[in-house]
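Progress against Task 2.4 (sequence-to-structure conversion) is shown through the following example record, which the project officer requested during the mid-term review.
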Amino acid sequence: MTPIKILICLLFVSIPFTAQELEIPNDLSLVTADDYKKTESLVLKATEWLAQTPVGEHPNTRIAVNGFLMKWMSGSPTVTIALVEGIVPLDCADCLMVFMSGWTKYSLEHNYSKDNTACAVAGAEQAIRFYEKNKAALGKNADMEKLIKLQKKGKLESYIASKF
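Structure tokens generated for the chain above:
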């Protein structure tokens, strides 16, 4: 097989992975602690989908994912997010959702971590990656630009720690 044919095959094989839809079931119940526990794997998938999918793609799925994550994060008995001014990108709703879901992901993957600094750093780093990939669609955001500068200087974690 020629290198061009291999490249074309790889492109077609990778397309489904970059543009996958994520289905949020309509009948999810989030009432008991067990309900939240049972949906943790979906939360992690939704978090990844939200962070990886370009902001202009799959708008209906993005609305469903945002709604599910917001409902889960606001009612979770195990994950608590602290929204502290200067850390969270308040002027960019998409960045804020990615930040909060990054915080949630870190907490879930680290035995329900309550370490505000570590969770916020994870959320900020995920929001930075998302913002950088979607900056053209989102527009310039001062909060995100500040976090990027701090990250580049190696001061993001100490800055976030100082806010708590």
